[in-house]
Specification:
The protein has 203 residues and is an alpha/beta fold. 43% of the residues lie in helices and 14% in strands. Strands 1-4-3-2 form a four-stranded parallel β-sheet, sandwiched between helices. Helix 1 crosses helix 3, helix 1 packs across helix 4 and helix 4 runs parallel beside helix 6. The chain is globular, with a radius of gyration of 16 Å.
């Protein structure tokens, strides 16, 4: 359970819950494609993979359903000894097109999770926050590994960020200058777009 019974759910938490609810609905319609999910599993487990994992397909081919199913299954299997400790999904079909709002949501989601909360104040100016994803995810990953090492004697834990439907973002976001080319070894980012989109050409 993400938030205890009886606790007040604020607007930010409601947005996180809505993405997970979307993932749960989409996951119910997903059948098979084990070779794709195995490839994502291998990417998430590899410390050598430092760039985003890209999922490309035709519109309506089931990219969102596959990623929803993968996220939902991963979240349900998280425990203290799991490699992956934090999963943050963002589905373009559900959200708006503004880049700064998406990045603010991602950073806020990391900060809401006690395993990787840095305690830093999140900037609100659009032109400031769009450049913060790399640094914030690196700081969150450092906090997660520090806590895991202290509590369980193990480090190397992983944060997974899933960005589905990048081609639904506003035009100026599709240059992907905000997307990290090289990630920390314990940050895994999975992105998707439609085949033939401008996003695919940049990726």
């Amino acid at each position: 359970r993400d938030f205890p019974v009886g606790s007040q759910v604020n607007e930010k938490q409601e947005m996180m819950l809505s993405h997970w609810a979307f993932a749960e609905r989409k996951a119910k319609g997903f059948i098979g494609r084990d070779e794709y999910t195995r490839a994502i599993d291998a990417y998430a487990a590899s410390p050598l993979e430092r760039g985003p994992f890209v999922v490309v397909g035709m519109s309506g081919a089931g990219k969102s359903s596959m990623l929803s199913s993968w996220c939902h299954s991963l979240k349900e299997s998280i425990h203290d000894d799991s490699l992956v400790q934090v999963v943050v999904p963002h589905f373009g079909e559900l959200a708006g097109q503004e880049l700064h709002k998406m990045i603010h949501y991602l950073i806020e989601s990391l900060e809401q999770n006690g395993k990787c909360c840095t305690g830093e104040e999140i900037p609100h100016e659009p032109q400031t926050i769009i450049h913060q994803l790399t640094n914030w995810s690196r700081a969150a990953a450092h906090k997660l590994n520090k806590q895991s090492s202290t509590e369980h004697g193990k480090s190397g834990k992983v944060i997974v960020i899933v960005l589905d439907g990048l081609d639904l973002l506003e035009k100026n976001a599709q240059t992907l200058t905000w997307l990290p080319e090289k990630l920390p070894s314990n940050i895994k980012m999975i992105v998707s777009c439609n085949v033939g989109s401008s996003i695919e050409k940049v990726l």
